[in-house]
Amino acid sequence: MRTTPLLPKLVAFVLLALAPQALGFQDDTPETNPPSSDPDPMYRALQRPELAGADLASLRDPQETIELDFTHLGAGIESLILLDEYESVEEVEHVEIQGRRTDARGDLNAVPFAALAIEIDGELVSLGGTESAPIWGEVSPGVFEALIVDESGTPVLRLVRRFEIREGRHGFVLTQRVENLDSEPHTLRLISSAMVDMPKAENGYAGDRRRFRVGFMRDQTSQGGSLVVSVDPELDARTKILGSKIPDVNGTKHYAQSSSFWPSEKALKRGDRLSWLAFNDRYYSVILHPVFDPASTDQGDRLLSPVVESMDRFVLDSYAKPVDTTILMSTKSAEFRVEPGASQSIELGVYAGPRTKPIFADDPVLAALSLPDMVVYNIGGFCAGCTFDWLTHILIEVLRIFHSMVGDWAVSIMLLVVLVRACLHPVTRWSQIRMQRFSVQMQSMGPKQKALREKYKDDPKKLQAEMTKLWREEGISPLGMLGCLPMMLQSPVWIALYATLFFAVELKHEPAFYGVFQSVSNGSWQFLADLSAADHAIPLPSAMHFSFPLWGTVQSINLLPILLGFVFFAHQKFLTPPSTATLTPEQESQQKMMKVMMVVMFPVMMYTAPSGLALYFITNSTLGIFESKWIRAHMKKHGMLEIENIRAEKAKKGPGLMQRLNEAAEARKQIEKRGPAPINPASREFRRKQK
Question: For 467, what's the count of Cα atoms within 13 Å in the CB-facing half-sphere?
Answer without folding.
Answer: 18
